[in-house]
Design brief:
It is built from seven helices and six strands. The chain has about 200 residues and is an alpha+beta fold. It has three domains: about 60 residues, Arc Repressor Mutant, subunit A, CATH 1.10.10; about 60 residues, Arc Repressor Mutant, subunit A, CATH 1.10.10; about 45 residues. The strands form two sheets. A three-stranded antiparallel β-sheet has the order 1-3-2. It has a three-stranded antiparallel β-sheet with strand order 4-6-5. Strand 5 and strand 6 form a beta hairpin. It starts with 5 loop residues before the first helix and ends in an 11-residue tail after the last helix.
């Protein structure tokens, strides 16, 4: 029988403590996994970060997470939020929480993404909640979060530019070295004219 890896152990414990959408304190999760010291907890923090990137875990507040499930429960909620926005044209965070079963933090994060992508605009408030209006309907597929891909693209472009600058500086250094060598050789080749004391 295959021994479960650490991620599966964490996933199983998250399901046990909050598989029905309940919030789970990371300190409680660590205690349930017999992780006491900060050093013990480091693998747990890394694992939770990976699960969060995969959409299985959502951080709802500092030190508190919600397990959304494997195979992308997060994207299902994202699609539901996008459907609500397309249907209603104008929404608040509270609308997405109520109609798409999203957490408040996830709804805010998704709306911020849509503002950056130019899909919605923030137009004011209804009561205490900001209102967002759909201005660019991209179709039934929920817009993807390309921030990470964009960051990687910028990093690659910056790296290319830095390498090109290094190459240019290296060529300039080589040219300067050759010029110095030529100048030194010219100095050696110069025959100094001996001057008689009587000519002074």
């Amino acid at each position: 029988m295959r021994r479960p890896n650490f991620a599966e152990t964490v996933r199983s414990k998250l399901k046990e403590l909050g598989g029905d959408g309940r919030q789970v304190k990371i300190s409680v999760l660590a205690e349930a996994l017999d992780m006491i010291s900060n050093k013990d907890k480091r693998p747990l923090y890394r694992c939770l970060s990976d699960l969060r990137d995969a959409g299985e875990v959502e951080r709802v507040s500092p030190g508190v997470v919600v397990y959304r499930g494997k195979a992308g429960a997060g994207p299902d909620i994202r699609s539901a939020m996008w459907s609500v926005i397309r249907m209603r044209k104008m929404v608040t965070v509270a609308d997405l929480v109520e109609l798409a079963n999203a957490s408040e933090s996830y709804a805010k994060e998704f709306l911020a993404l849509l503002v950056r992508r130019g899909c919605v605009e923030r137009i004011g408030r209804i009561g205490q909640s900001p209102t967002y209006r759909l201005i660019n309907d991209l179709g039934p597929q929920a817009p993807a979060d390309t921030a990470k891909a964009d960051r990687l693209h910028h990093i690659r472009e910056a790296k290319k530019k830095a390498i090109a600058q290094l190459d240019e500086a290296g060529q300039a250094l080589i040219a300067a070295t050759h010029a110095i060598v030529r100048a030194r050789m010219a100095v050696v080749d110069i025959q100094e004219t001996e001057v008689d004391d009587g000519e002074i």
